[in-house]
Amino acid sequence: MKDLYILRHGIAVPPGTPGIPDDERPLTPKGEKRMQQIARGLRRLDLKLDRILTSPLPRARATAEIVADGLQAGDLLETADVLRAGADASTIRDWLRERTEERLMIVGHNPALTDLITLLVLGATRPQPQVCELKKGGIAALRAADSSPDRAELIWVATPRLIRRLAGERSGSRK
Description:
Blueprint: E1 3-8, H1 29-44, E2 51-54, H2 58-70, E3 77-79, H3 89-97, E4 103-108, H4 112-122, E5 139-144, E6 152-158, H5 160-166
Parallel strand pairs: 1-4, 2-3, 2-4
Antiparallel strand pairs: 1-5, 5-6
């Protein structure tokens, strides 16, 4: 793999919401709307992808579907159990080694995705400081390092607000 885009799922129903188990939490209406705006922003970046892989949990799957639709890449969408909530960054890294796509987007959950960025860029996770913290709907772009198959160069990180602005969306409150 040459290019890796790491996208955290959008705003979801809070954990502990009565009647909704954690693994079944969906995006909120606000989360869906913001992910549609983010998808429009990502489309302006003209990302070229070979595959979009997502956690099977509803909040990540809906995020991936919205982004895939926005990028006109619905046929590239696939579920990957390794991206499920609670995954370990080193397990995801090992799984990524086996992927043959050149340009891959993964959609999942924190803390694994933030830890994965740190692991790929610095070669280790905690107790080191994190390279960045992906907010809900945030994305990071990495490129494989020439020096090691397990390392990557951080190309850019974007907050959800920045990507929405690329789409020409006005941001409301800073909440």
